[in-house]
Amino acid sequence: MEEILKKPDFDSDGSILVFERLCKNYRLGQVELKVLREIELTVKKGEYVAVMGPSGSGKSTLLNMIGCLDKPTSGRYLLGGRDVSLLDDDELSFIRGQYIGFVFQSFNLISQLNVIENIEIPMYYQGVSEHQSAARAKELAQMVGLGDRLRHRPTELSGGQQQRVAIARALANDPLLILADEPTGNLDSESGADILAILNRLHTEGKTLIVITHDEGIARHSEREIRLLDGRMQKETQER
Fold first, then answer.
1. Which residues contact 22 (CB under 8 A, 6 or more apart)?
2. Fold (CATH) for 44-73+87-238
């Protein structure tokens, strides 16, 4: 675990995430399903990348790979210069908590906790002191425009406000990358535009963003579009 605790190193070209011939198969009885096939992908620090594809294309599996929620069947996954495809479950859990900020379509907030407490959760698991985590959570809540909602619980917030809490929580440990899965999927158009504006601001501030989406409008906010079909990368649009 000592090696895992070290700060990540970046390649000379600034690469933060590298997939090398990454494959993921699942076995159902006697049938082996090839879900991801020979994925080659590099994301550099500060990039904003959209991953698109139809249902069944492999987007969710790719998200699980990027988020260290599952392991590849073959190939390598380098995150911050470290081959995380070799790590055990405890080490992967540490990597997720320290280096990856998740934003989900369904918000995934704890209903019994208020805004501050929800944002503090990642810091609690990383052993940050109560005083430090409370101060950091307040700062992040204010950053996403919820300075007047600190003691509200999720049921007292709109969908857009809940997603703002989720973004603040994703930033709590200053992760290497923000991984967002359909971040506006449960929001009306106005709230969705507000969330995209926050993601755009994070990008301009140098955060690394990977957004999984089926929405062309959301993808147009990114620098690069990566498209999947039948588990293979089909097309990439770069540098708008």
1. 36, 38, 39, 40, 41, 65, 72, 74, 75, 76, 77, 85
2. Rossmann fold (3.40.50)
